[in-house]
Amino acid sequence: MQSKCGLNIGGLKPGIPIIQGGMGVGYSLHSLSSAVAKEGGIGVIATAGIGCNEPDFTTNYKGANARALRKEIRKAKELSGGGLIGVNILGALSNFDDKALISIEEGVDFIFSGAGLPLKLPALLSKVPNSHTRLVPIVSSGRALDVIARTWMKHYDYFPDAAIVEGPLAGGHLGYKYDELGDNMPKLEDIFLDVLKAAHHLRDTYKRDLRLIAAGGIFDSADIRKFLDLGAAGVQMGTRFVATHEADASLEVKELYLRTRPEDVIIIKSPVGMPGRAINNSFLEAVARGEKIPFKCPYHCIKTCMPSKSPYCIAFALINAVQGRLKDGFAFTGSNVTRIKEIVSVHDLINELMSGV
Q1: 347 backbone φψ class: left, alpha, beta (φ>0; ψ -120 to 50)
Q2: 7 lies in some domain
Q3: Does the global pTM surpass 0.85?
Q4: How many domains does the chain have?
């Protein structure tokens, strides 16, 4: 399947203009990412909480995550049929550098990074000889892209290989203020055009190309076509890939997506200081009532988290859900989850998405 949009990230050209979003704590590991890559898209392994299936996850958090990350990258590359594999690393992770270095050492094609400005990311490439990993920041404004690009160029002579523009309809933690996510939230189209304007200025200044990828609320082929027409080189999609047979989440979570109603999709105040979009349930209702779910923090995984003041551990809450223990946690989701009607294969989903592009 040949791309109709010319998506080119640092000289690497996927067959289709679709990047599967990185969804942490076990939603997108080697099974999902390799299936997407095999179909010509870019498969992405999420590194947040990646060691949750390791036996020593709670006693050796750092080691378990490092071991699991290497395993998942190697399995994904083995199963991808030579397709493109990336990782998503949250800028807020306290072991960001370790995960980035492991990913570069294992030869991933891309590092996608948001939830903070990854201003020092290019410095890590020089620590791994002959690295070919491309660096792609995730931004929600033209100003953020401008700061990242100019900082990278000034200190490392490195220009972003592309940038993902994420709007407020995405799932999980969001790069917006809580009060920006109400009825008058900004539209992805407007955010994209703002970032596109910044990208044009950067191209003129540095004489280098900068492709943009739209993300956050992309659901079907009409959405893909709309953003390609606006000037995007491709799109990133997360929520739709959860409801696939190959997604690494439990069947319980996939079935939860199918029965979610519009009123179930809410914005929460995460213990790590960022708003997030989630599916409401008894766990979150208890939190909203002010109840505290006791926990012991095995590792300060998020820089902005204050365990002593947090009502619950979001890592364990998300892990419980992805592994099917929904009473003891909750699931993140994008805004369009209620439009998903069935669990399908990655192959069939991508054929559907590309049918009108």
Answers
A1: alpha
A2: no
A3: yes
A4: 2
